[in-house]
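Report of the visiting student (M.T.), summer placement. My assignment was to run the structure pipeline on a short list of targets and document each run. The first record concerns Pyridoxal phosphate homeostasis protein.
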Amino acid sequence: MASAMARAGRVDTVTLVAVTKNHPVEDMIEAASCGVTDVGENRVKEGTDKQKAFPDNKLKWHLIGHLQTNKVKQAVAHFDLIHSVDSQHLLAAIDKEAEKIGKVQDILLQVNVAREESKTGAAVEEFPKLCCLAKEAQHVRVCGFMCMAPNFENVEETRPVFRIAKALYDDMKGKFPDGQVRYLSMGMTHDFEIAIEEGANIVRVGTAIFGPRNY
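After the run finished, the structure tokens were exported:
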């Protein structure tokens, strides 16, 4: 991460979200003891189960996987930042559940920049409307933008995807109060260095930290 930032001439901060999907809670405990402060989970139940091992709750919990509306109640109750808000319907459900518990839920809007059929995320054309609706929601705070690049064999091919994401993120800043939009979440184990070079300030890394997953 430091090398990628140096290559890009960056002197700001990039947050490492350690993704523990399908890894045991013991691995998370070890990572936290080594200084990890942000943890990412793809599934609501797996994340909430693992949170029980951290009763002092000093970690910041990120939900990075696709969120179904029937899991919104639990997600809002247990996660600090939801990365994968990709539709008007999901946005409304989060706003409703957050209101019930008196919370303003931090979220990122997810866009399927590469237009992959296998991946979730709003279409680029739907993004302006989603931004407008999110700005009007009373119990949701839009903190930024999330995208996933295709798993290209040549990692350099991810660069144009990340550049489009950065442009959308920069445009998004002007639609919300100053300082509210501050997170650009993109980059995983195979492409996080390119993502950092292209402007990401949150990267979601699992395999490079914990090894291959046991499915």
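The longest helix spans residues 159-173. The longest strand covers residues 140-146. I thank the supervising group for their guidance throughout the placement.
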